[in-house]
Write a structure and sequence with these properties.
The protein is mainly beta and 223 residues long. Helix content is 7%, strand content 39%. It folds into two domains: 72 residues, no CATH class; 107 residues, Jelly Rolls, CATH 2.60.120. The strands form three sheets. Strands 2, 4, 7, 9, 12 and 13 form a six-stranded antiparallel beta sheet that branches. A four-stranded antiparallel beta sheet has the order 1-14-10-11, with no helix packed on it. The N and C termini lie far apart (61 Å).
């Protein structure tokens, strides 16, 4: 009887000091498995050529110049568009650089190349969640420096992960309705800002977009 009591005491002691047992079942992701991602993009504004800067003076001499104050910043992660305006005959051959952050808050930049006397917009490909600086290099304009610059954003909305192939977008919705034509997708396997989707539904400031895709689990594309 004493042995039985001692045995029960030992069992109770072990139970008291035992690590808690997790009874939940967990599925494991094997290397050969893929997981579908979901992303909601709400209230993307209408694309606008001057949504960020309207007729910025740019360089007013042969020296370099930069702009760090903006009329508005970006509503959702998306691409940048820069358009020469004013006296475009003063536009010189140059490369304007935009610095900002990607979907996860990491610093990124993109170059926008212009030819002399250019009047047309240059559309960027990277998705910026915010911009901090627009830099005009020396001799970006000819005297009397009458060119101005409009900075806005386009319809390439940024994805939160990296994809290996554009075909890895499975489907999308616009305003809760299935889009029979998938978005126009650009991918970058290792840089999240290069992964964008141009949806077919209207970007009107109130429409919600949903996208379902297979990501590649690249470490550089995770927050």
């Amino acid at each position: 009887m004493k042995m039985l009591i001692a045995f029960v005491f030992v069992l109770l002691s072990l139970e008291a000091f035992a690590l808690p047992y997790d009874r939940r079942f967990r599925d494991q992701k094997l290397p050969t498995q893929k997981i579908m991602e979901y992303q909601l993009i709400s209230n993307a504004s209408v694309a606008g050529v001057n949504s960020i800067l309207d007729n910025d003076a740019g360089a007013t001499s042969a020296a370099a110049a930069s702009q760090t104050t903006f009329d508005n910043n970006i509503d959702v992660a998306r691409n940048i568009v820069i358009t020469p305006s004013g006296t475009t005959a003063d536009v010189a051959s140059c490369v304007i650089n935009v610095v900002g952050t990607d979907f996860h808050g990491q610093s990124i930049n993109e170059d926008f190349t212009f030819a002399a006397n250019q009047t047309s917009a240059v559309t960027g490909n990277k998705a910026f969640a915010s911009i901090s600086t627009v830099s005009y290099p020396a001799s970006c304009e000819d005297s009397p420096f009458g060119a101005t610059w409009r900075v806005g954003y386009g319809e390439k909305l940024g994805l939160k992960r990296c994809l290996d192939q554009a075909g890895h977008v499975v489907f999308s919705t616009s305003g809760g309705a299935y889009e029979s034509t998938r978005p126009t997708v650009a991918v970058d396997a290792s840089n999240v800002e290069g992964n964008t989707a141009d949806f077919n539904g209207a970007m009107d400031g109130s429409n919600d977009f949903e996208i379902f895709f297979v990501q590649n689990f690249a470490a550089s594309c995770m927050p």
